[in-house]
Amino acid sequence: MSSGAQLDLVDAATAGYPGLSKGMVDGKALDKLESVTDRASEDAFGPNGEIYPTAEELQTLRRVYGKINWMIYIIGIVEMCERFAYYGTTAVFVNFIQQPLPTEGPFPKAGAGGTNGQSGALDLGQRASTSLVLFNQFWSYVMPMIGGWLADEYWGRFKTIYVAIVLATFGHILIIIAAIPSVMANPNGALGSFIVGLIFFGIGVGFFKCNISPLIAEQYEESHPKPFIRTEPDGERVIVDPGITISRIYVRYYMLINVGALVGQIAMVYAEKYVGFWLSFTLPTILFLFCPLLMVVCSKHYVRRPPAGSVISKATKLYALTMKGRFSVNPVTTWRNLAAPDKWENVKPSNLANKPAWMTFDDAWVDEVRRGFKACYVFIWYPIFWLAYGQMNSNMVSQAATMKLNGVPNDVVNNLNPFTLIIFIPIFDKLVYPSLAKAGINFTPLKKVFAGYVCGMLSMAVTAIVQHYIYKLSPCGDRASSCEEPPNMLVWIQTPAYVLIAFSEIFASITGLEYAYTKAPRNMRSLVTGVFWFTHAFSSAVAQAFVPLADDPLLVWLYTVIAVITFVGGIAFWWNFRALDKEDDQLNALPEGQYSAGGETKTKEAKA
Asked: At 237, phi and psi to the nearest 5?
C-alpha cells in the first residue's frame, strides 16, 4: 500500500483519534498504520474514532485508567451526604439503647453525660442494643433487594432514589421524636417511636443504596463502553480499560462515603455527649436534605437507563429453563448436571427449536444473565465476611466502654475505621494497585475479596486478645462490663482491629460493589447490587445467633469463634472460585445483549 493510500485510510478510519495522524508514516508508525488497516474490516473502531484492541493486544499492552468526569464526583457527594446522615444517626444507637439516662452532666434529661459521664437513654442493656442494632442492619440491607427490583422493572433509578429520600426522611423524624427529653421520660413511648422510625429509615436507606452505586459507574460507561487504544506522549501504546477505571471510580466513591461517615460519626457522638441525642439525630436529617437538592439541580446532566419491564421474571424463567431435567436421585449425577458447561448454551434462543413467547432477547443477553448469576454465587459467601465487619458497630463499641476513655466518648473510637479508609484508599488507588499492575501482578477482584477475608479474621483475633486482657486486668475479672473501675488499658488499644477492618473493606466491600456492577446484565444492575447488600442483611440475621455470647464472661469466645469462621470461610471462598477468577477479563468483555420487554428493544442509555 502506498503512503498516500495509508494516509487516506488513517484520515477515514481514525478521525478524532489523537494517537495516529498524517505525520506518522515512517518507522514504527508504519506498523501502526498497517494495524489500523487490518482492523478496518473488523468493525474495530468506536463512535468517536477510538481504536478497539485485538485479542492479542488485550493480552500484551499495558492497561491504564480513563478520565473520570465531574458528574461522577457530584453523585459521590450526594452519597457522602446520605452516609453522613446514616452513620451520624446510627453512631449513637448503642448508647441510646443500652445505657441509662445520666444523673449528672450538662443536659442529663436529654441523655448528655458530659466529659466524665456516660451518655444514655433507654437503659435496655447490651444484648438489647446488639439485637436492635443488628435488626437495623438487617432491615437496611434487605430493602436493597426490593428497591433494586422496583428500579429495574418499574421506576428506574432516579424515581426510586426520590422515593427513598422521602421514606428515609420520615424515619429520621420519628427517631428525632424518640430522642426529645419529654418523650424519653416515657421509655416505652420513646422505644416505640424509635422502632417505627427504624423501619422507615431502613426502607429509605435500602432503596437508596442499591441505586446510587450503579448510577455513578454508568456516568463513565455511557461514553466509554469498551477498552480502546491510546498512544502515550512517549509513544507507548496502552489500553484505556473501563474495567479498572470503574474500579477506581468505586474506590474514590467509597472514600467519599467514609468522609461522610467520619464527619457524621464524630460530630454526632460529641453532640450526644454534650447536648443530647435529639441534636445528634437532627443534624444528620438536615444534611440529608441536600441529597434531593443536588439530584434535582444536576438532573439534566445525568445518564439514565430506563426501567426494563419484566426483566427479573424473564431472568428467573431463563434460569429455571437451564435447571430443567438436571436433578436426579443420584447426588453425583445432579452435581455433574448442574456443573455442565453447556447448560446456558442450550437455552440460547438460537439453539431452541420452539422458543417460548417470553424469550424476547438474544443470545448475548443470555450470556449477561449467566455472568450475573456467577456474581450472585460469589455474593453467597459474603455473609461470613460481614459477620466480622458487623462487630465494629455493636460489640466493639461496648468493649470500648469498659476501658479507660479519658473523656473520649466510647462510640467515637470506631471512627478509626473511616479515618483509616480516608488515609489508605488514596494510597491503594495511586500507589499499591498501579504498582502491582506495573509489576505484572493481576490483583483480580476475587483475589481482593480473599484478602478481605484474611484482614477480617485478623481483626477479630486482635479483638479477642484485647478482650482477654480486659478480663485479666479488670478489678471485676470477667464481669468487666458492669465494673465501675476500668482496667489499666487505654481504649486506643483497639486501633489495630479497626485498621484491619478498614483494609478488609478496601479489599472486599469496594470490590463487591464493583463486581455487582461489572457482572450484572446492564438492565439488572440495581437488583444485583441489591443482592450484594442483602448478604449484609443475611449476615445480621446470622449474627443474632451469636447474641447469647455478647455479654460477660463470654466475649472472648464470641470474637474467637467469629475469627475462626472468617478464616475457614475465606479458604473455602478461594477454593470454590479459583477457576472463576481466571475468567474475569472474558466476562467483562461480553457484549451488551438485545432485550425487549415485549415491544421496543431496550439497549441504549438515555440522557435526561
From this structure: -95, 125
